[in-house]
Known about the structure:
Elements: E1 2-8, H1 17-32, E2 36-44, H2 48-55, E3 59-63, H3 75-97, E4 101-104, H4 110-119, E5 124-128, H5 135-141, E6 146-149, E7 164-166, H6 173-176, E8 187-191, E9 200-206, E10 215-221, H7 236-260
Parallel strand pairs: 1-2, 1-4, 2-3, 4-5, 5-6, 6-7
Antiparallel strand pairs: 8-9, 9-10
Amino acid sequence: MRLKALFTGGGTAGHVAPNIAVIEELTKIAKRRDVDLDILYVGRFRGIERDLILKERLKYKGVFSGKIRRYFSWRNFTDPILVFFGFFQSIFIVFSFKPDVVFAKGGFVTVPVGLAAWIRKIPLIVHESDSMLGLSNKVLSKIATRLALGFPLELYRGIPLSKAIFTGNPVRKDVKEFDLNRDSIADVKVTLNGVSGSDADFTITRLQGADALTAETTEPTTGQPTESDVEGGSSAGTVIIWIVILVVLVLIVWLVAKKKR
């Protein structure tokens, strides 16, 4: 038996690490059941997902993608064009790879891939780690076959309950196997704030013997640099541009689906 699975998700490591965890478990199940598993990952050309997935030695295809910025940036005018091209790239990838299932984790790169899967009538599984759906998952939840959630269903609002299921959040093998006692760590306190380059304060307390004093260390760590760490506000132009591009994409999908009937 052969199974083709296409994974997509990016923008932050939080959209990639759970995918890696699912791939690890799916690979174990495939070996146990003697299934010939073929996995393809679709993400941005230069996103963090590319580095993480290639490190896992998995097949990777890059597509054009954009994002909504809640502040003024000239890229708010060019990114919709990238999304438009990325949509047709995704259609080509999905139609050529012909996956049996598509798993989308979040991030704007998943929207064109999910739409392409819907056009091809391929089962689409969307996973949300947070207690509130992200924008891309909100869009895809309308056409998804299954909506897997990291928290109990009653915590979510406005979700299609008929296709929703509480699964919890996937955890990578190296995280599950981490041994807190291997370095004689008696107490570990970790504080994380935000994603995409936001600062995170890690406070680690080590007790290394009966006569050792409590040692506390705090260091800021970041992900890949973002365009702006502090810019806020919203841009009406950004919202209008993205509404237009989403309407165009939905119209294209509708016309293609109507023609297939």
